[in-house]
């Protein structure tokens, strides 16, 4: 069975038999030879009739038979290419599979084991760097195999569609030479057949139709290009035409019913149904994406994806939101039926394979629908004490909750859509192309309302789907292309949603007024409570901040973007760090990043490559203090709130820092030499933290689960924390320079500069008593801020 992410496991790959393609080639070749013999026989038979039949009638009939023969031969030659393609695929894929098995065997020779997620766990007898090398080799070989499968599948699918079109044209007495342009006609034909089968409740017909559908697969590079907003021009126009006309002709009811049928088949153990559902969902993503483009020999576009390619009733389902519904004739049961259809569609979207990205416009509308469903459930909780309205049935709430998550997950696949949803840039009030009719009254989009809805809901998935809208941005904030620009703008706008302030830096409440004048808690207090309840939101935010330690290494007054670099204002940085530490993985991301940053900077000092010692000490102290104090304050907050019934912050902080150093050492090993040539800040962290995904460190961090050690909550003293920071830096500096000791006066100067900067931060940030904690959660993270103002 595939692993939890739908990826084949090493044990599955070992069982794959690509030589079966050679057997298939023999079957096709034999059948095609028989076909050729039959058409030759028919033509020759009619020719032999010339001895007993002559005249104009014979000549006219013979010309018709000869034309049919010539058309049939074209079909024969189209088929004749297929056996060679199959044999080439069989031998090529067998070779690629063997490379994978060889790499696994190389690891096994050292006593290592490749698990179902294609990771190699730690082994006390083998250095982690050696494990990482073998893991990288295994993964690279496996990815090469998957890419080769996708490449052969593209070729075979395109050829199979050409053969089908040729046969269909021959049977319809149309010139077989037109086969290459028949994708749309065949797609429409199959779509109409689906609609008919649904009306007639004909499951056998549905099975026949899905067997005929092309199963076009994008390569890993193509999927990554789409995720980055780049054009993919390798999908044939005929394939695009097929999917577009298939969905249009099947319509919403046909598509949903077909998915229901395949889901039922999958549950009964049908091994093909799962792949067919994936294909149905993948096709929706491709046909909706305007970056999927087919060009003719002259470079002009002949086919292109886009939201308008989806049938009107699907666009109405996605773009029609409950709060904008104005149909006076709708009954409670109609409302319920609509939500159920949206859940059915969301279920289909969830089947799309990783990397299949909806178009920007489709992604935006999916995100807005996810927020709309979430808002509906929140209003039920607020106004009806959680009881669903008349017309709903037991289990509908869970269905709607899951569908909202699936819509947001799909939206988060497209970075341009995520950016638009969080910034408001490029969002059209009604992109449905008239599909909404007069039953809805679309409102102007407000990204603040969107963010408030998705960031303050208590999610069944702990906020993972919502966090996916921004968690991707961290790795790309230092890129200088369009995607990097969007990533920085997402990071820049987050404080405005999670901890907004007025022009005097006073926190705002949910009513948009400063907390000194308004009613109720601040938005930041709500964010803290929500991030504690939804730890995936915190982990996602940590992924944004971890590669951006330079964004708060200096003392920036305001958050903004300057010279293509993200800068976080002091208070914004403190608040975002605090929220990021509401989850154990979030804390670990930041701690690993901090220690990797420290190690790289200290190594540069040891190599004598620090032209500005004072600035370096200041930035290092600022990063260390803010990350460490955010971790501590968040732990105290969670203890006080008894999140997950725990009271463990001191032991957990110790364990986190120890494990963080283990992770950091793995990241830094082999990378210090390159890092020492870079200035402090994001350049160093980017070069190291960027290896997290490649080495599987991100999965290791998220899998790490500290063992709670109950104990009484104790507030730390500022002096103790200052001493701890001073001693930690001194020890680290001594260790880093042991092979190349610094002159004593320079060593002392680093200590003094670092200690002074660190000590300045502690009294303004650290929670040291219940009063500080109260101010932390109600009036800001400066603990207490009044000390800075005095």
UniProtKB/TrEMBL annotation:
<dbReference type="InterPro" id="IPR057037">
    <property type="entry name" value="TPR_rep_actino"/>
</dbReference>
<feature type="region of interest" description="Disordered">
    <location>
        <begin position="423"/>
        <end position="443"/>
    </location>
</feature>
<dbReference type="InterPro" id="IPR036689">
    <property type="entry name" value="ESAT-6-like_sf"/>
</dbReference>
<protein>
    <recommendedName>
        <fullName>TPR repeat domain-containing protein</fullName>
    </recommendedName>
</protein>
<dbReference type="Pfam" id="PF23275">
    <property type="entry name" value="TPR_23"/>
</dbReference>
<feature type="domain" description="TPR repeat">
    <location>
        <begin position="216"/>
        <end position="472"/>
    </location>
</feature>
